[in-house]
Amino acid sequence: MPKKKAAVRRHHRRKQVRHVPTDPNILNAEDAAKALGVSKWLLLRMARDGEIPGRKVGREWRFHRTTLNKWIAGESEYEALASVIRGKTK
Q: Within a domain: residue 39?
């Protein structure tokens, strides 16, 4: 009688799918870092520490282009977000 092979468990990692925002004003971390001229890792640290306006959606960070521009210009995050909500974009 042939020996039975032991069941081998294989753990397959789920392939990470990067979702690209459909709105051109919403940037992922890579695009926001390029736009600001900083490394992705610096941008993520600043976002995590609340130093730069952004939101974490699931496992990924998202940044609004206009909010980042206003943040660079010196407006507070709340002023920048309020103007985006009101539709006052440059």
A: yes
- pTM of this structure: 0.61
Contact between residue 75 and residue 68 where contact means Cβ atoms under 8 Å apart: no
Distance CA 67, CA 49 (A): 17
Alpha carbons 64 and 76: distance in angstroms, whole number: 14
Is 60 exceeded by the pLDDT of residue 61?
A: yes
Question: Hey, what's the torsion of the CAs at 12, 29, 24, 18, to 10 degrees?
Answer: 0
**Pair of tokens at residue 48:** 């995590």
Residue closest to 47 by CA, chosen among 68, 70, 26: 68
Q: What is the CATH number for 45?
A: 1.10.1660
Q: What is the DSSP letter of 74?
A: T
Selection from 10, 8, 31 nearest residue 19 by Cα: 31
Distance CA 14, CA 33 (A): 26
